[in-house]
Design a protein that fits this description.
By secondary structure, the chain is α+β, with helices and mostly antiparallel strands. It is built from four helices and five strands, in the order ααβββββαα.
């Protein structure tokens, strides 16, 4: 009975993880309809977030981290590549859908927390949230 319960638990955990991962088309739509508008809203609140074109940048005390969505012209269909750029000049291509989802989720989390904290007008908390990225 214990083995059956553990098996069911592992299978359910696997399904839950899969349900949270978006495919490339869903990720592109999520970026356009939710993440980028949220970044624009937060950019109006603080100068530590910049949303311009297909780039969302978060300025931290240690530098700037940017998420870039760019059209891949090497394929005949509309497909977007995602890159993570740092202020040290590192460019990390997010070719793995799981990693791209993690990065987008992290940006979502940080931007949501900043927007919620801005309602209380607590600049130190906003600064610490942005530096946590």
């Amino acid at each position: 009975m214990k083995k059956l319960f553990l098996l069911a638990l592992v299978l359910c955990a696997g399904l839950t993880t899969q349900a949270q991962t978006h495919n490339w088309a869903e990720l592109s739509e999520l970026y356009d309809t939710e993440l980028y508008p949220l970044a624009k809203d937060v950019a109006d609140i603080t100068d530590k977030v910049i949303a311009h074109g297909n780039v969302i940048s978060i300025v931290k005390s240690t530098g700037t981290t940017s998420l870039v969505k760019e059209l891949d012209k090497s394929v005949p269909i509309e497909f977007f590549n995602y890159k993570l750029l740092t202020s040290t000049g590192r460019e990390l291509k997010l070719t793995d859908p799981l990693m791209a989802n993690k990065v987008v989720d992290k940006f979502f989390d940080v931007l949501r927390r900043v927007k919620e904290s801005s309602k209380q007008d607590d600049k130190k908390e906003i600064e610490s949230i942005l530096n946590s990225l």
